[in-house]
Write a structure and sequence with these properties.
This protein is mainly alpha-helical and 482 residues long. The protein has helices spanning 20-35, 56-66, 90-102, 113-125, 189-200, 215-224, 256-261, 266-274, 289-295, 310-323, 326-333, 339-343, 346-356, 366-374, 382-385, 395-410, 416-430, 434-446, 454-461, 463-479; strands spanning 7-10, 39-42, 106-108, 149-151, 158-162, 166-170, 179-181, 204-208, 231-235, 238-239, 306-307.
Length: 482
């Protein structure tokens, strides 16, 4: 067994995409280990072969590493307590099972599925919960590995402490003879995780709320094996944006790597996931990795469900994007840039990226924010008709504003200060509000739903190009249907 003071593990099943709730469990386990200078293990619980999805193991590893949760041991990092794929540990489980049989704490289940269903129906008719232990066979057959192997429980009341949920207790009525080894030779989660944690020296078991009702049965197995209980920490559910139900696919829950593909930074996901149901007791909302290692505490994890706030995620992503060095931002944006942007002169492209940086909420916004810098935009008059203020003006009024703008900018020195001064002067001569004048100028030169600051955009486009686009927009607006 490992001798480190603290050993934690993240033990997902390879059954599909990695959602934020699962990865939060892994993050918290990693933080507990890192704070104590302990060991963090990645273990794959792949004993349910019917639900396994091809490629999921590689996907799990990619997600964990994307957040920087480096593990000391895992499927691709052998160690003394490995292997770290449960499907490769069958002999270990069978050895522990044989010991339990020898101690009189496990027996073969001789019943057919039909017989078990009959027992369940009887309990239902009597309005009683079904307990297998009420139907223990008097003389079970010798276990040959082809029948399910069941735990011979010794029901009793339990009280235990959970680092998050506090003191918990339950009666003996929830203890049952649960399956340890299935008829296919694979262990159940109920048995395998206890064996693995014991063999790997795990000191802290951090997992989701769905397992809390099963904990008394786990404690009964720990007792049967004379094992010391680990420290338990139960993570509350992550709720939808309204906070009224567990987050699901219909509420926008998706694969963690899907967020990365959409332009969310790993730094954002780390900070956002960490603060789903945890804070350090201050008003701080943004955490770097070092902050989390220093400040995290299981005692500060809330008992109630954590609300998944998409707007907060976007806000946080914008913060981390703004914190990037310009050259680093350019590297991160490379896979999102349009072909036209990639062909542009590097110095000009970098200038565009730096101009857009403050407006980016995700890396994938870059094309909407910047494509008009690299190629002629396609006019979209719906940007005018859907604008609350511009839609009130006639075509002639809009064209008049652009004519005045063209005349003024034609006589303007092409610098940011001079352009802004010219724009401010236009507000006086036209008598229009900034929301009207600046909006129609911005649309005329970008034909985009949003863009960087107007004066800086004009400077970067260049005088000839900006004036040409304003002139072209006048024709488009003249011909549009109001």
């Amino acid at each position: 067994m490992l001798k480190q003071t603290v050993v934690t593990r993240f033990a997902p099943s390879p059954t599909g995409f990695m959602h934020v709730g699962a990865l939060r469990t892994g993050l918290f386990a990693w933080l507990v280990a890192k704070q104590a200078g302990g060991t963090f293990i990645l273990r794959i619980e792949d004993t349910d072969k019917n639900r396994e999805v091809e490629g999921s193991v590689e996907h799990i590893i990619q997600c964990v590493r994307m957040l920087g949760l480096e593990y000391e041991y895992g499927p691709d990092k052998p160690g003394a307590t490995g292997p770290y794929m449960q499907s490769q540990r069958l002999e270990i489980y069978h050895e522990w099972a044989k010991k339990m049989i020898a101690d009189g704490r496990a027996y073969a289940d001789p019943y057919t599925p039909e017989e078990l269903n009959h027992f369940r129906e009887e309990a239902k008719a009597k309005k009683q919960p079904f307990l297998y232990r009420n139907h223990r066979p008097d003389n079970p057959p010798v276990w040959d590995g082809r029948l399910p192997l069941r735990f011979l429980s010794k029901p009793r009341d339990y009280s235990w402490n959970d680092e998050v949920m506090g003191d918990l207790k339950t009666g003996e009525e929830v203890i049952d003879d649960i399956v340890l080894i299935k008829s296919d030779g694979y262990p159940t989660y109920n048995f395998a995780h206890i064996v693995d944690d014991a063999e790997m020296g795990v000191t802290h078991v951090i997992r989701g709320q769905e397992f809390i009702s099963s904990t008394p049965n786990y404690l009964n197995i720990y007792d049967a094996l004379s094992l010391k209980y680990p420290i338990f920490a139960t993570m509350p559910h992550i709720m939808n944006d309204q906070g009224n139900k567990k987050l699901g696919k219909r509420d926008g829950a998706k694969d963690v790597l899907g967020y990365i593909a959409e332009g969310y930074l790993p730094e954002t996901m780390l900070s956002f996931i960490a603060t789903l149901g945890w804070n350090d007791g201050t008003t701080q909302e943004i955490y770097e990795r070092a902050d989390l290692v220093e400040k995290f505490s299981l005692k500060r994890v809330q008992k109630s469900g954590a609300r998944f706030d998409q707007r907060r995620l976007q806000w946080m992503n914008g913060h981390f994007i703004r914190e990037l060095e310009p050259k680093e931002l350019a590297l991160r944006l490379e896979r999102f840039l349009s072909p036209a942007a990639k062909k542009a002169e590097p110095i000009y492209r970098q200038a565009v990226i730096e101009l857009c940086q403050d407006r980016l909420k995700s890396l994938s916004d870059i094309n909407t924010l910047s494509n008009f810098f690299f190629e002629q935009p396609t006019p979209d008059t719906s940007l005018i008709s859907s604008h609350k203020q511009l839609k009130k003006l006639s075509n002639a009024e809009l064209v008049g504003l652009l004519s005045a703008t063209h005349d003024s900018l034609s006589e303007t020195e092409w610098s940011q200060d001079a352009i802004q001064s010219s724009l401010n002067g236009l507000l006086e001569t036209t008598g229009q509000k900034p929301v009207i004048l600046f909006s129609i100028i911005r649309i005329a030169i970008t034909w985009a739903p949003f863009s960087p600051e107007l004066d800086k955009t004009l400077v970067l486009l260049g005088k000839d190009e900006a004036l040409a686009r304003i002139a072209a927009a006048k024709s488009v607006i003249t011909d549009r249907q109001s």
